[in-house]
């Protein structure tokens, strides 16, 4: 919880910034700043608004990426990125308040124990160090050996510093955007919450020349837009899309002025609680840096007069709910019990909140957008909105849970649509199945490495990856724990359990040979060749840990299989249910057909007189009697 609570230091940091840099928009909670610049980023880091086409060709979006983690337990959301050749995988916090992407470097002298191994530049054939006095040295800072450096400090006093490098960065299995050579920070020192967090680093999505978004747009590979969708109070996770998507029906747009600051601001003019406007001046939300939307901040922070009015307005609507102490005595949280444990029923106990913007467009928040669960009292919830001693209004991730937020930078606007972020891929229009050219070396040599019979499909679409592995375990042990094997592989590769299927296994020379498959999920998508290659690399390098019962493993071979017309059904998580339903419908149809035939014959012969049969013995007796009479 230190990541979450450290953001409360904003009020102290704001006082410090007011004394040193009254015009600085950078001193905002999780929002970053340069070292030695009194928390100010130079104005040269403002990025121009890019058009939707460059270099004479139309841009298509697209990296569709899953989000992981949640606000309550971690205070952030992460996405997986792949850096280098071969790719090294990292979990990065998606942060619209940061402009630099960085991961811990293998040479780091003070980096925390994060969830993935540190980046090893020597293992990447495509990595280059950025030298000073070159166009790519965007920071203008010079270190040892004339290497370009970056330095960042956050308002909660955590810091990150290191050298700038450039390497291939890829975006996962649902990405049509191939890996690009992008600038990022190879971290050599980190302190504070950055040191303590489990996530590996930060994905900078703000405005600035080192931002991933700006780099992809400037290179002409992506439209100037991206979207985030955070999962709900119970679900966690979510989705991210790098690139443009068509605006969805009912999406509410409001302008966002890129000239005001490097951050994504909103022209908020009014807050309503249960439809009743707060009794504060509309200018309160436009003071200093205005209203800033920051995905890297956990909660929401209002100027003092707005917070006091908001708190009182919410409490007046709580009826019979009972006030209780917060989960942590260090903080004076505003908590109430008696609302039940189902978040979908919260609207029966807590009011709705409306954001009204300058263009009179309105976004309605559900209770989960301003409450967090009490961790010690079931059925109790606490206010996730706090007082900001600075007049800036800061809206963190809690405000946009279960809400698709489109950062349409090309049109200087931000869109909001309430939806189920855990099921976003089924809501969005399907992408055309375009997969770019695969990276080199997608087949291994048969001499001393696993044999790949995997030629890349001619249509450059990968429907599934078939893998054959040798495990140093016995047949009966594997037979009893095959489901554990699949779940361990899914967890280690950061894919869904529904994507993995066991085809067959057998015993061979005191080993168990396992043939299994990884398919896309949802099934209408395809795996990019980059993602398929990343899976193979992970298994080749033994980066997936299995329980001790399975012993060691080696990847023998793999195949990249093209999409099949029926593969989406065979690998679908509800395949068994579909088979049962089809069988049931078949039985019903058979019974209906049989009944129809029986009914037809009954109807056909129902009016005909029955045939009378005469006993043969009786006929013969009658004839003999008649003959005797004649004699």
TrEMBL record:
Keyword Plastid: yes or no?
Answer: no
Q: Which UniProt keywords apply?
A: Aspartyl protease, Glycoprotein, Hydrolase, Membrane, Protease, Signal, Transmembrane, Transmembrane helix
Biased amino acid composition, Low complexity: 442-458
| Superkingdom of this protein's organism | Eukaryota
Carries keyword Cell division?
no
What ranges does the record give for the region Disordered, renumbered to this chain?
430-459
Peptidase A1 domain location is: 77-417
What is one Pfam family matched by this protein?
A: TAXi_C
Chain ranges passing through the membrane: 578-602
InterPro entries, per this entry? Aspartic_peptidase_A1, Aspartic_peptidase_AS, Pepsin-like_plant, PEPTIDASE_A1, Peptidase_aspartic_dom_sf, TAXi_C, TAXi_N
- Signal peptide start and end residues: 1-22
UniProt xrefs under PROSITE patterns: ASP_PROTEASE, PEPTIDASE_A1
What family is reported?
A: Belongs to the peptidase A1 family.
**PANTHER family according to UniProt:** ASPARTYL PROTEASES (PTHR13683), OS07G0592200 PROTEIN (PTHR13683:SF817)
Q: What is this protein called?
A: Peptidase A1 domain-containing protein
